């Protein structure tokens, strides 16, 4: 995760409206998600945690729900990575 993505996530937590598609692309890519073209929407998924996936429309301005879900998805990623880190360190001991 990049510093820019972390700051963007914090700003999105404070306000869910007024974001553009590129902002979500920056957030997702900053946290390691991959984006590929689908038919009508792009597919967003995390290569390590395959259950973390969503769609992203191609129009510029997004409904508030897309931002809310993006924040939720990134929070879930952070939770999974922390759990894996704790599990990994306990395993090495």
N to C succession of SSEs: HHEEEH
CATH class category: Alpha Beta
Number of helical runs?
3
The CATH architecture can be named as 2-Layer Sandwich
| Number of self-contained structural domains | 1
Strand content: 15-25%
Radius of gyration: 14 Å
Cα shape: globular
Compute the average pLDDT: 88
> What's the CATH topology label?
Metal Transport, Frataxin, Chain A
Number of strands: 3
In the sheet with the most strands, the strands line up as: 1-2-3
Detail the topology: elements first, then pairings.
Elements: H1 3-14, H2 21-30, E1 34-37, E2 41-45, E3 53-57, H3 64-92
Antiparallel strand pairs: 1-2, 2-3
Helix pairs in contact: 1-2
Describe this structure in words.
The chain is an alpha+beta fold. The protein has one domain (3-85): Metal Transport, Frataxin, Chain A, CATH 3.30.920. It is 55% helix and 15% strand. The protein is built from 3 helices and 3 strands. A 3-stranded antiparallel β-sheet has the order 1-2-3, with helices on one face. Strand 1 (34-37) and strand 2 (41-45) form a beta hairpin. The longest helix is centred in the C-terminal third of the chain and has 29 residues, at 64-92. It is globular and about 35 Å long. The two termini are 26 Å apart.
